[in-house]
Design brief:
heterodimer; A: mainly alpha; globular; B: four-stranded mixed β-sheet; 10 strands
Amino acid sequence: MNEEIIISGRMIPHVDPHLELWHWPISLYLFLGGLSAGILFFAALFTILGKEKEFAGAIKRATIVVPFALGIGLIALMYDLTHIMYVWQLYATIRLESPMSWGAWVLMLVTPLSALWVLGYFKEYFPYWSWKTGFVKPLGIVIDWINEYRMTIAWILIPSTLLLGMYTGILLSAFNARPLWNTSVLGILFLTSGLSSGAAVIIWVSQNHVERKLFSQIDLSLIIIELFLIAHMIISLYAGPEVQNQAAQVIMGGQFTFQFFGVVVILGLIVPGILEVLELKGFHFPVAIPVLLVLIGGLVFRFVMIDAGQLTRYLY
Amino acid sequence: MRYAMAIDTKKCVGCSDCVVACQTENNVPTGYCRDWVIETVTGTYPDLAIELRSERCNHCAEAPCVSSCPTGASQYGPGGIVFVEHDECIGCGACIESCPYDARYIHPDGYIDKCTFCMHRVEKGQDPACVAVCPTNCMYFGDMDDPNSEISKLVSTRKYKTLAPEAGTDPKIFYLI
């Protein structure tokens, strides 16, 4: 027998009987952050490779989603803060040992750049506006200026979107008090998942067969990598100390097994993976099916990790 | 100077006076507590062993709450006391997530709150409220850097343990066993 009980009574809101501090806004933000990083990374990459015409879906269409996704993500993040009036303190310092601090700064860099990126294509979105006269003239000048520096923006976006995608995972993996999160594979796993979600959105909005096929191949590769990384995560939890073995139980037979394996792994990775293989072999499905499955899988993955991680602890 | 606390589990009777003293001294909101008492029962009947521990923030030397804080609100004070500067705290909860001892909570006013070793008392040379009130005198507070302090002597002569040392936090609450 080994029983530990709190005899002085303790039922602190959000802390007891187990941590329930971070809720859906954080999960939603982590998903939207990863998704935005994925879309912008591909847009920047194919711009640098000089494929603006062939990959208009990635560069011009999918990127419209990004400022909105980051905006909603930021609002969700703010909503979760309990001392919101002091939020400016986040930008009064940089603390490299705190992933949340440098992540906030990366977000501060990527969000305006994503808005500039989309603004730069306004002349193509609204070709019938008279850009040389009237009240839109100053906007036209700004747009020309953005396009002049688009290559620079793209080069800045490559490392910063990779950092953003990775940070959503490192934010969690840096907490060694939550054994389920405390695995270094999480950073690269969240990045891969974000890139995969980004590729899925690009497939959805693309109007060009070549682009769609290439991104189906990219997405399929990312899904396979993600499956390997999930296996890595589970192996590392079982190879770790006792607290991590116990933490693994939450997704391996415990409370979140169905959500993790049923929804994230099977419905969110394996099924869309198979559909994409069949699609590349010539079978035709509505493209929305694999895309939505990948996106739902990515979103549920964040929910499972946030909720399950907070069940795991060191003591009691 | 390095403040620390030693708690004699052989002398503790689990009366929870430390908990009430803390709540009163620090005006802790109803339903919250900065310290609590744990009873651990091990063994098989009739060979049972009970251990009682008054637990609180461990004022770790390698505090994950300080390193995870994005604004620097969570910080080390004099003597290594870990505390939260309310006006710098945004209420993100990173420190709560990072604490292996679950010693922090969100104050109803929004900022993160925790045990401060009663900094306001310690500054005046008094013991923290929990130590001062303990009816069995099982708690000791003092400076670990002073080899002549009572706590230094206890920790160097008695067997002790710390909680979850494997979390790598270098905790400064010593349980004498």
